[in-house]
Design goal:
Elements lengths: L5 E3 L8 H6 L7 E2 L5 E5 L2 E7 L4 E6 L5 H7 L6 H11 L4 H6 L10 H8 L7 H15 L2 E5 L2 E4 L4 H5 L3 H9 L2 H14 L4 H4 L5 H9 L6 H10 L11 H10 L11 H15 L3 H15 L4
Helix pairs in contact: 5-12, 6-8, 8-9, 11-12, 14-15
This protein binds a DNA duplex (13 and 12 nucleotides) through helix 6, helix 8, helix 9, helix 12 and helix 13.
Length: 296
DNA sequence: CACGGCCCTTGGG
DNA sequence: CCCAAGGGCCGT
């Protein structure tokens, strides 16, 4: 075994590992009883052991891949600068910043974000986790074993396109199983690297491309844009963020249902208020309201 | 353009 | 037991 964890001098208020991995951006990281986090980045298993003034880490089977961790957690983004801008733009963000300092938006694989959020509609976080983990276990390559856990890379679109619908239904995908398979076919048909290529185009264009796929509406497209395509200005408006946005910006919209027009209005207000990292600001307000249930 | 019914499962009321 | 839960589609 020879764990030989490496030390990273990144304090918890610059990277809050637990908040980041628990905030509903990703669904396959597991927290062990000891407080270690175990997951996969690309084709590497990863172990993280958070401490206050930094964290221990290692990658498997190839060791010492700090480059993977540095990119996955977007450690190049200066949080203090963002906090300053948000406080100035909207003082009511203060509490969500203070209570979740160090939370970050992940730079995830485009494929994993795409297919994970495809099953988020009318679902619970607990069940999304189980569905996505089952999908990876059934169709993803085993890449490493860490502390007795066999870790799998996320399956390719091609593998998912050829998956068995009954098997997926049984693995908690339910009525979403055929949607998943059809979407995987669409993605395969558009060619290798199509999803990744949406990182290089403007956010609006990437969003439009995604919503052209059956099963992907405005909200899920924004989740994929923010978490998988690294478009930091994407603001997914779910039921929680909707309440927050109405409270902050437009109480008059409270009576209206979330039509495409209302959706776009609220997301645009977020961007106008918080700027190019509006998606990050959204994550703080979202996670804070989820944990403290203050919006109800 | 706005609304309502429908869809798999599950855990929490 | 029943029903909402981090939506989207299709029909009116």
């Amino acid at each position: 075994m020879g764990d030989e964890l490496q030390w990273a001098d990144v304090p918890a208020d610059r990277l809050n590992i637990a908040a980041t991995l628990d905030s509903g951006q990703c669904f396959r990281w597991i927290c062990t009883g000891d407080g270690d986090w175990i997951g996969v980045i690309g084709d590497c298993g990863v172990k993280l052991r958070p401490r206050v003034d930094g964290f221990w880490w290692q990658t498997y089977p190839r060791r010492d891949r700090w480059d993977l961790i540095q990119q996955f957690f977007a450690l190049d983004v200066d949080l203090e600068r963002l906090y300053g801008e948000w406080r100035r733009a909207e003082p009511r963000t203060e509490q969500s910043i203070a209570r979740n300092a160090g939370m970050r938006i992940l730079r995830q694989d485009a494929d994993e974000a795409f297919f994970s959020f495809l099953c988020a509609s009318c679902n619970t976080v607990v069940k999304i986790r189980r569905s996505v983990q089952a999908l990876a276990r059934m169709y993803g390559e085993a890449v490493a074993e860490v502390d007795g856990l066999v870790l799998h890379a996320f399956p390719t679109a091609e593998r998912i396109a050829n998956a068995s619908e009954p098997a997926l239904r049984a693995a908690l995908w339910g009525y979403r199983a055929p949607v998943l398979i059809d979407a995987a076919r669409d993605v395969s048909e558009r060619g290798d690297g199509w999803l990744d290529s949406l990182r290089a185009v403007p956010y609006r264009e990437a969003h439009a491309e995604l919503t052209s796929i059956h099963g992907i509406g405005a909200k899920i497209a924004d989740c994929i844009c923010l978490f998988g395509l690294w478009h930091d200005e994407a603001v997914p408006i779910d039921t929680h963020v909707r309440r927050i946005a109405m409270r902050l910006f437009r109480p008059d919209l409270a009576i209206k249902s979330l039509t495409p027009a209302v959706y776009d209005t609220l997301a645009s207000l977020f961007r106008a208020r918080f700027g190019p990292y509006a998606g990050w600001a959204q994550q703080y307000l979202f996670y804070d309201s989820l944990r403290h249930a203050e919006d109800r």
